[in-house]
Amino acid sequence: MPIEDPWCHVDGAAPAPGAAPNPAPEPARRNGQPVASASPAHAAVYLTVQRSAAFQQMRRRYRRFVLPATAAFLVWYLAYVTVATSAPALMARPLAGAFNVGMAAGLAQFATTFLLTWAYARHARLRRDRLALELRWETQDMTRTAARREAVS
Amino acid sequence: MSGDHQTLTLLLFSVVVAATLAITSWAGRRRQGSPEEFYAGGRLFSPMENGFAIAGDYMSAASFLGISGLIALYGYDGMLYSIGFLVAWLVVLMLVAELVRNCGRYTLADVVAARLRERPVRIALGASSVTVSVLYLVAQMVGAGALVALLLGGSMGDAAHTWTVLGVGALMVTYVCLGGMRATTWIQIVKAVLLMAGALTLTVLVLLRYGGDLGALLNGAAERSGHGADFLAPGLKYGGDWTSRVDFVSLGLALVLGTAGLPHILARFYTVPTARAARRSVVWSVGLIGSFYLMTIVLGTGAAALVGTDAVRAASPAGNTAVPLLSLELGGGAGTRGGAALAAVAAAVAFATILAVVAGITLAASAAVAHDLYASLRVRRRPAAPQGRREEVGVARVAAAVVGAVAVGLSLLAQELNVAFLVGLAFAVAASANLPALLYALFWRRFTTRGAVWAVWGGLLPAVALVVLSPVVSGAPHALFPGVDFAVFPLENPALVSVPLGFCAGWLGTVCSRERADESRYAEVEVRSLTGAGAV
């Protein structure tokens, strides 16, 4: 896993010259009170993981699938609804017997929904799940270590 | 409808009530009173169980009876309406389910508040969640009152209606208070199984009638509907003037984006252990919901073909009795024992459906009140102490009773009114207030607290205001107040305007904020949402 050690830059108040571009993160506060888990070291863990190549790769895989797919099915659904309401004559054109264009388009909506569900689940299972699990354990290890060091110091 | 039929229907209703109460007492037996138990049912449901429960939560009596009825009356336009409810699940599956499971604990506001200042965000999202839930609940309960009175034969008049609303309200509060999420989930699972089995049986019977020939079924329906080929094409219901056509597009937008912002749907993802399980439960529910809507097409056209559109409309102008009438016909026709039995079973399934849906919504509303509003508005004390979390469950139980009482009161007031627009409004508020805040919080690095607060109020208030100024409230014959006219907004569903407003307000609030977004807290949300690190 290409995650570098997160502890080299966060402890000192001023980063050493030539240090990595991690800005010293502000302690997170909730309701004006610091949250037990939101120490600077804790925040640094997440920044480090977020910048790691493995996480970037998983996020890219997720977004590359989800964003185009969402755009596609939203456009396809809104186009279908718009055409059905504004051009009913087109939808009424018969294809085979009682079966017309509108029926075909409606059933195609069902079909594309099932298909995209299957495709997304498959993509997530094959391309993301393993990476996500590795990153999860890695991150949790790092936050545990951070908490321990903080308790000691 | 005959007396025999009514007795049998009442008997089956009692069986449904007894079964749900048995589930509640069984689920409440080993309760420890922890929020984990109460809001999330212990988080150990399997994806299949949760998939059935999601389907049970989502498919209301309005789907089972209402959409089949719409198809029986208006043909194609009924199917057009149902498709939005299904496509919406792609938004839930791809953008929301896994990320919400990873980042949140019990409610929608947990996810958004994770990287922002908690108090204002929780108050705003708690308010919009309660609004959505109460709107949806009133729609369901008014429908339930009308429906049960109708299913029992309509001979008891207004008293039956009132007692039904009171009874349904008492039952849903009982399930939630005594059984929490565990009881609610099992009730939804049982209901989903009943609903799928009932719909499947009727579908098979309709198809057997036609020897499996779908063309003959469609032609038969077109013929007996009195509309001919128009029945199988869009336009009978939503094809009036251009206002009503644009109105339908607005409704479609609300349905497709609103599902991902419904608090009771989002709460379901917390009942499984991992994001992967949340994803698999959505896959199950897409399969179930999709096949259910496919079956309603057969049921609706079957009712048009076998019962006749005129007979359906004569029994109930909104078409809600299409399925019971179809079962009567399939069981052997009016006056036969088989027909009466099948119609009674269909009515009992519809009743179980009502009970399960209202229980899910009540639980989500009580979570929003106790976990978001109460926890933010009360005098600040140390929140993490165990007795404080026990106390929160107590508040949630009280909140469930209060929400139930408010919903019953509003439903009784609205009994005589036409509240069909409320479902669309609930989806519109969810799409314009909850969804922008949720998506921005998960995907936008620069999003700030002010952005979240503006997104929620900037979606919620316009949605409600536009409906108040629309023809459903005044100025039309079917309006709530037909006597006065202050309808300046032409559409019945506000989503087409309020959804863009919600997203714009969130953007504007973010670019106007003085505070900068906290990089490290966004990093935490992003890493947690995609990997599941630190998920509860």
Automatic annotation (TrEMBL), chain A:
InterPro entries, alphabetized: DUF485 (IPR007436)
Protein keywords: Membrane, Transmembrane, Transmembrane helix
One Pfam short name: DUF485
Bilayer-spanning residue ranges: 65-83, 95-121
Sections of the chain in a coiled coil: none
Region annotation Disordered: where it falls in the sequence: 12-35
Protein name: DUF485 domain-containing protein
From TrEMBL, chain B:
Any one biological process term the GO annotation gives: plasma membrane acetate transport
Gene Ontology CC annotations of this record: plasma membrane
Recorded superkingdom: Bacteria
UniProt cross-references to Gene3D superfamilies, sorted A to Z: Sodium/glucose cotransporter (1.20.1730.10)
Example of a GO MF term: acetate transmembrane transporter activity
Keyword flag Membrane: yes
Stretches that traverse the bilayer: 6-27, 52-74, 80-100, 121-154, 160-178, 190-210, 248-270, 282-307, 341-374, 395-414, 420-442, 454-474, 494-512
Pfam family, one: SSF
Membrane-topology annotation of the record: Multi-pass membrane protein
InterPro entries: Na/Glc_symporter_sf, Na/solute_symporter, Na/solute_symporter_CS, Sodium:Solute_Symporter
PANTHER family per UniProt: CATION_ACETATE SYMPORTER ACTP, SODIUM/PROLINE SYMPORTER-RELATED
Protein name stated in the entry: Cation acetate symporter
Organism: Streptomyces boncukensis
